[in-house]
Each structure stands twice: as structure tokens, then as C-alpha cells.
Design a protein that fits this description.
The structure holds two protein chains of two kinds. Helices cover 42% and strands 4% of the residues of chain A. By secondary structure, chain A is mainly alpha-helical. Classes of the chains: A mainly alpha, B alpha+beta. At the A-B interface, strand 1, helix 3, helix 6, helix 8 and strand 4 of A face strand 3, strand 4, helix 2, helix 4 and strand 12 of B. Strand 4 of chain A pairs parallel with strand 14 of chain B, so a sheet runs across the interface.
């Protein structure tokens, strides 16, 4: 039966086989013992079970959309803040605000004072006891590549995964430029995007509690 | 379908036809009030069980993307599957199991595609453990706050599936693979990076929940299960595992589920949940009477096994060890019980969990000292208190705003 592993099939079947053989006489019992592992001992797991099948290059390429901080996974294409602006207005502004100030979805733009995360001593001294903290791309995203990865896979939320590489590069450029992280005329592509230094890069520290 | 007599019809019929008989019992005064169930055959067997109409059990605080387990209504360590908490990032996808594929690639010798049937052929393993949302904390909570609204985004389940170590041996994980990316097939195509150590240790690809197939809201037909680790990393509707030599730095593990600290840094990869506990009875909206009360609750820790739960009935001035109810399982809800004789005066009751790593559940003030005023509501596990008012009303002890 296909649902049973070889391991389980043996373990389950063997005691029965020995029992039946034993009932047939000493000769039968001896024959089974010579051919099979000792009753009661489950066989060791094989190195491989051989289930599943090899993935093709095309299958992997179709799903392998992640983009890493070193730029691996970024597709060909390019965009600028200017090329991204109309796409932002059309696809993003209704949830994130016309200027990225936030709405039903997270704010994307804005951080003050400059180069300060939205928490910690420097921020506290500047902000005082007042308003809510705004976590934005400008102050709390350590990698620009993550922005590309996330927009490509999950945005816009009513039609995720429909944007083309040039559109995503343009949106990333617009958001980064609005945050003052790149120049308005900077061209983002697979080579330049990983080189963008995010203000929040160094505050993220893997640490033990 | 032909007209059949439902259980509801029978109950209604019974009430109508023998109600009078039940109210006028033969031979003396009946001990039981109401309908006499001994005078009419009961409902027949059915294909699918239903809860007693007297015991509605529903998830609380249902929003579009989240709902909470009604901790105050449960008695055991296992969470009934239909009230397991939910947190989705782009809704619940409708996955046809016939179409389901799991792709494993990257730093492996044999990039492999597995069907659901393939997954079920591998040796199976089961694990009872809790699963808790990274953001299991009340945003704003007044006195009329139930346990589910304090921390109902935790549930305990018997998960069954295939050990991730088995799968990674099958595909030939290379020695230079140190992290893997897990990706779901929801509309967020949600991704998280996980260290390979967790795969070799105790990670599962789970396809069953409390003995039956996963519920759609819990990742049907297969999900990643990382015992003791924050819910978000337990990727549901799992479709892809990519092995790599560094973390992939996805949105969820950088800009979202990280903990800003008071010192100006942000702690990344807060995978393991620290110990936590809560008294689930008595709690709001209970009203209690003076005399003996069994204080009951749950404790759990992603670090390991709960070894002690202390209970205070005087606002944290003195503590007594509660009794732990077997079974006490690693990384699972553990029941505790503590007998208390309430004198009828105002009281404040609370619990404090300790796990086998020596970690002790902190006070809110201690957490705030580390996290700072601008902490996000992630990975918080403070001691929770209930006030028992004169007259017996039990209410949540309100906390001042976190950043006050």
C-alpha cells in the first residue's frame, strides 16, 4: 500500500510472517529467520526513500522570486523615482497615502530626526512624550532589496504579483527618493539597488536575550 | 436530500410533547428541574458531532486578519481545532490538495518536488506544542477584558507530519546550507528565514492537526511547524523551501517582527518565545463567591518545559507554588491549579511561570525597562493580574499605556 513507508511495512508485516511461519513448523520458522532481520527489530531508516521527483529548472525559476540583500534574485530591468511616481499614484496611494504618509496601510515615508531610528535614547530626547512612533521604510527597513522582494510578491494587495520588474524598480526608487535615501534621478537596477545604504541598516542586531 | 428528523427537531419535539409530563412527575417531587430526559429516547447517532447548544464556543476579537482562542472557556491543554487562533497576512487561500506541490531547492544535491501524497509516505511524527502569534498582546485593555483579549493568540495542538530533517536528508542538504527560506502560497507569498539547526532539531512539515487534516486557516494542506518559535515563522500553506548560506532578510523578519530596544538597537530574530502564563479562571467576566476557589490557568514556554508556576492572591507581595497538571510537555500549554480561600475582600490574583532554562516570567515594568517606551507589541510576556472586587466581580487589572 502506497501510504505505508517501506520501513513501516516491514515492521508491521514481519512479526505476522514469523508467526505464520512458526505455525507451519520449525523448518518454516528457520527459513524466515534466514531471510529477514530478527523479529522485533525495525529496519534502520534508509538514506533515501526515493519519494517525490526531481524539480526542473523551469519549475524552480517560476517560484524562485526571492531577492537577497546581496542582490541575488534581482531581475533585469530598471526604474527611477520619475518612472515610479505614476505607478505609485495608481497602485499604492489609496492605501499608503498620496505622499507615502500612511492610511489604511503602513506609512512608507518620513523619518525625523535624520538618521535616527524611531525609538531609543536619541529619538526619545528629540520626540519627548508625544506622538506615536512612525516606523517607515526610511527609519526601520535595513535593506533596500527587501523592499523590491516584498512589493514584487505581495503588492498591491488587491492584485499581488502582477507588477513587472521595471514597475517594481520604479516604485522602490520613488519610495527611497521620497525618504531622501537616494537622489531623485538615481537609476535603480540589479547592480545599484543592493548598493543602497539604508539608514536603519546598523540598528538591527541579532542578539541573545 | 430527503427530509430527515434533525436533532434540533427532536429537542423541539421533546420539549413540546413531554414538557407537561416533565413538569408533573409521577410520584413525588423531581430533583431535576425542566425537561425529563428519561421519558423519551434521545437523539440518534450522527455523522458529525456538534457541541451542546448550551456550550457555544467561538473565537473572540475576530477581525479581518486575526481571531483569538477563547482561553477562558477551555479546560484542557489541547485547543479545539475550530477555535485555534488565526492570523493571516493576505487571507486564507483555497488550496486544492490535488494541486499541492512542495518545492525544495537551493543548496541541496537533488532539487525535489513533493506532492501531498509524497509527504504522507515519509515516516510520520507527532508533536504536541503551542503556537503563538508574535503579537499576542492587548493593544488597549480596560477592566472588562477577557483572557482571550489579553493573550488569546496562543493555542496548543497535536501536530502530525514529516520531520523536516527527514526531508532535508532526502534531498541532500549541503553542509554549507545554514539557513532556509520558507514560503507560503497565500496572496502575500509570505516568507521567513529559519536557521538550519531548527530543521535538524525538531521542525515539522505538518499536515494534520489534532488527528485530522489541517484546517484551511492553519495552513491546509501543509505548513511549517517550529515548536516554541514565534507564530509568524511557522509558515502556512507551505509551497517552497530554499536552502541558503545566510538569512534572506524578508520583510517580516526585518521591518515587522523585530523588537526595538531601549538602547536604540533592534533585536532581530526573536524566534523563541519566553515563558508566559495567565490565570484563565477566575477572570473577567466571572463573578465569584467567598469560600474555596480553584485558581486555574495555563503556562507555556518556547524555551522548554514549565517547571513551576507561582500564584499570588495579594497583588504580588507573596507567592505560592501552584500544582501543575500532568501532562507537562515541552513547549506546550501546561495547566496549573491553585486552591484559594477567598475571604470576600478586594484581592489581586496573578501567576508567574518559570521554565527549565531558569527563565522567570517578568513583570511589565521589567519588560518596559528593556524594550523602552516605544516597544512594538511583539514578543511581550508580562505577568497578568485580575482584580477580584468586593461582591465577587473579577476584572482585568488595567495597565497604563505602554509609552506613558
Amino acid at each position: 500500500m502506497g501510504r505505508l513507508t517501506p520501513c513501516r511495512t516491514l515492521a508491521a508485516a514481519l512479526p505476522v510472517a514469523v508467526l505464520l511461519a512458526g505455525g507451519a513448523g520449525p523448518e518454516g520458522a528457520g527459513r524466515v529467520a534466514a531471510q529477514e532481520p530478527e523479529a522485533g527489530q525495525a529496519p534502520a531508516s534508509p538514506e533515501r526513500f526515493g519519494f517525490g521527483r526531481a524539480a526542473t529548472e523551469a519549475e524552480i525559476a517560476a517560484w524562485n522570486i526571492d531577492v537577497r540583500p546581496d542582490g541575488e534574485g534581482l531581475p533585469a530591468g530598471e526604474g527611477t523615482a520619475a518612472s515610479g511616481a505614476p505607478i505609485y499614484a495608481r497602485e499604492c496611494a489609496s492605501c499608503h497615502g498620496a505622499a507615502g504618509e500612511g492610511g489604511v496601510a503602513d506609512p512608507l515615508v518620513g523619518y525625523e530626526p535624520e538618521s535616527t531610528p524611531p525609538f531609543g535614547p536619541r529619538y526619545e530626547a528629540w520626540r519627548g512624550a508625544g506622538d506615536d512612533v512612525r516606523f517607515t521604510v526610511g527609519n526601520y527597513w535595513p535593506y533596500a532589496t527587501t523592499l523590491y522582494d516584498y512589493i514584487l510578491r505581495a503588492m498591491p494587495s488587491d492584485a499581488p504579483g502582477t507588477l513587472q520588474p521595471d514597475e517594481v524598480y520604479g516604485l522602490v526608487a520613488w519610495i527611497l527618493a521620497e525618504n531622501g535615501i537616494i537622489a531623485r534621478d538615481a537609476v535603480l537596477d540589479a547592480a545599484t539597488l543592493p548598493a543602497v545604504e539604508m539608514p536603519a541598516r546598523d540598528i538591527f542586531v541579532p542578539q541573545e536575550r | 436530500m430527503a427530509k430527515t428528523v434533525t436533532r434540533r427537531d427532536l429537542l423541539a419535539g421533546a420539549a413540546g410533547t413531554i414538557g407537561a409530563a416533565a413538569l408533573a412527575p409521577v410520584g413525588g417531587r423531581a430533583l431535576a428541574q425542566g425537561r425529563d430526559t428519561t421519558k423519551l429516547p434521545g437523539a440518534p447517532a450522527s455523522a458529525l458531532g456538534a457541541r451542546s447548544p448550551h456550550e457555544p464556543l467561538v473565537r473572540g476579537a475576530v477581525r479581518g486578519a486575526a481571531s483569538r482562542t477563547p482561553l477562558q472557556d477551555l479546560h484542557g491543554i489541547i485547543t479545539p481545532s475550530d477555535v485555534h487562533f488565526e492570523r493571516h497576512h493576505a487571507g486564507i487561500p483555497a488550496v486544492d490538495p490535488a494541486d499541492y506541490r512542495l518545492l525544495i531547492h537551493g543548496l541541496v544535491e537533488r532539487p525535489t518536488v513533493l506532492t501531498l501524497a509524497d509527504l504522507k509516505r515519509f515516516p510520520a511524527t507527532s508533536r504536541i506544542c503551542f503556537l503563538e502569534c508574535s503579537g499576542n498582546y492587548p493593544q488597549e485593555a480596560g477592566p472588562e477584558t477577557k483572557p482571550e483579549n489579553v493573550c488569546g493568540m496562543t493555542s496548543t495542538t497535536e501536530w502530525t507530519g514529516v520531520s523536516l530533517a527527514t526531508l532535508f536528508r532526502e534531498v541532500g542538504a549541503r553542509p554549507d546550507a545554514t539557513w532556509f527560506l520558507a514560503e507560503g502560497q497565500d496572496a502575500a507569498v509570505m516568507t521567513r528565514s529559519v536557521p538550519m539547526e531548527k530543521a535538524w532539531d525538531d521542525a515539522l512539515i505538518a499536515y494534520a492537526q489534532n488527528g485530522e487534516a489541517l484546517r484551511p486557516a492553519q495552513g491546509y494542506p501543509a505548513r511549517l511547524l517550529l515548536p516554541g518559535w514565534e507564530g509568524n515563522s511557522n509558515v502556512k500553506w507551505l509551497r517552497r523551501l530554499e536552502l541558503g548560506d545566510r538569512p534572506f532578510m524578508t520583510r517580516e523578519e526585518t521591518s515587522k517582527y523585530t523588537d526595538p530596544l531601549a538602547d536604540g538597537t533592534a533585536r532581530q530574530f526573536s524566534f523563541v518565545f519566553d515563558a508566559r502564563s495567565i490565570i484563565t479562571s477566575p477572570a473577567y467576566p466571572d463573578v465569584v463567591e467567598p469560600g474555596w476557589i480553584e485558581i486555574r490557568g495555563i503556562a507555556w514556554s518556547g524555551r522548554g518545559t514549565i517547571v513551576q508556576v507561582d500564584v499570588s492572591t495579594d497583588g504580588g507581595r507573596t507567592w505560592q507554588a501552584a500544582r501543575l497538571q500532568e501532562p507537562v510537555l515541552r513547549q506546550a500549554h501546561t495547566r496549573f491549579r491553585h486552591l484559594w480561600r477567598w475571604d470576600g475582600g478586594p484581592a489581586e490574583i496573578m501567576s508567574r511561570a518559570t521554565d527549565d532554562s531558569g527563565y522567570v516570567q517578568p513583570t511589565r515594568a521589567a519588560l518596559r525597562a528593556t524594550r523602552g517606551r516605544r516597544a512594538r507589541r511583539y514578543h511581550l510576556n508580562p505577568i497578568t493580574a485580575w482584580r477580584v472586587e468586593r461582591g465577587g466581580r473579577v476584572v482585568y487589572r488595567e495597565e497604563p499605556p505602554w509609552d506613558a
